[in-house]
UniProtKB/TrEMBL annotation:
The gene is purN. Gene3D superfamilies: Formyl transferase, N-terminal domain. This is Phosphoribosylglycinamide formyltransferase. GO terms for cellular component: cytosol. Keywords: Purine biosynthesis, Transferase. Pathway: Purine metabolism; IMP biosynthesis via de novo pathway; N(2)-formyl-N(1)-(5-phospho-D-ribosyl)glycinamide from N(1)-(5-phospho-D-ribosyl)glycinamide (10-formyl THF route): step 1/1. Residues 3-182 form the Formyl transferase N-terminal domain. The active site is at residue 109. CDD domains: FMT_core_GART. One of its GO terms (biological process) is 'de novo' IMP biosynthetic process. N(1)-(5-phospho-beta-D-ribosyl)glycinamide binds at residues 12-14. It holds the Pfam family Formyl_trans_N. It catalyses: N(1)-(5-phospho-beta-D-ribosyl)glycinamide + (6R)-10-formyltetrahydrofolate = N(2)-formyl-N(1)-(5-phospho-beta-D-ribosyl)glycinamide + (6S)-5,6,7,8-tetrahydrofolate + H(+).
């Protein structure tokens, strides 16, 4: 199985979805390490309950981003990680770290990229009156919230939605999309080639979530 390291900063509901997916041998992946930059991240408890090693690497303890990223790199390598999953990890990573993990690091973002990169995606989508929202799992490139797209899931925007109600609907889609992306990679059915991902075989119905 593919050895996975998950980076979190908070609640860890996407981490939980990945933990549950890895219980299925068909996923062909095992989470070997969870790293958080915050000691009070709820996801640390979820990992511990699942018997997964955790560590806190507090960004405030490092003089610069490069020092923080070097420690993340050291821990991930020490655990033999082959794929890094960013799951609500709210730190900007250096170009050097991203280059070192190129095509071996993926992220989940709460919008249908390339729309709504950055923060406050749901409030901005509602202000624009869009009728579909969603999430994207993508390989990480140096420019924030860009990179080859592996899986997207779309959900409808409802009349009367608030940023919170829309976020909850998108989050449910995230919990399906992230495990799917992991499974596609870990079973060799998604391959990144340059700036796009090729999905092998038939179109998977799970990639269209409505
Ligand atoms: C998720 O909605 C994720 O897409 C988002 O943070 C949330 C984390 O929730 N990520 C970003 O905004 C990255 N810039 P979780 O901790 O429950 O998985």
């Amino acid at each position: 199985p593919l050895k996975v390291g998950v980076l979190i900063s908070g609640r860890g509901s996407n981490l939980q979805a990945l933990i549950e997916a890895c219980r299925d041998p068909a996923t062909n992946a095992r989470i070997v390490l969870v790293l958080s930059n915050k000691a009070d991240a709820g996801g640390l408890k979820r990992a511990a309950e699942a018997g997964i090693p955790t560590a806190v690497v507090d960004h405030k303890a490092y003089g610069d981003r490069a020092g923080f990223d070097a420690e993340l790199d050291r821990r991930l390598k020490g655990a033999g990680v082959g794929l890094v999953c960013l799951a609500g990890f709210m730190r900007i990573l250096t170009d050097g770290f991203i280059a070192a993990w190129r095509d071996r690091m993926i992220n989940i973002h709460p919008s249908l990229l390339p729309a709504y990169r950055g923060l406050d995606t749901h409030a901005r989508a509602l202000a624009d009156g869009v009728k579909l929202a969603g999430c994207t799992v993508h390989y990480v490139r140096p420019e924030l919230d860009t990179g080859p797209i592996i899986v997207q899931a779309a959900v409808p925007v409802a009349a009367g939605d608030t940023p919170d109600s829309l976020a909850a609907r998108v989050l449910a889609a995230e919990h399906r999309a992230y495990p799917l992306a992991l499974r596609l990679i870990a079973t060799g059915r998604a391959r990144v080639k340059g700036e796009t991902v090729r999905l092998q075989g038939e179109i998977l119905p799970e990639t269209f979530i409505m």
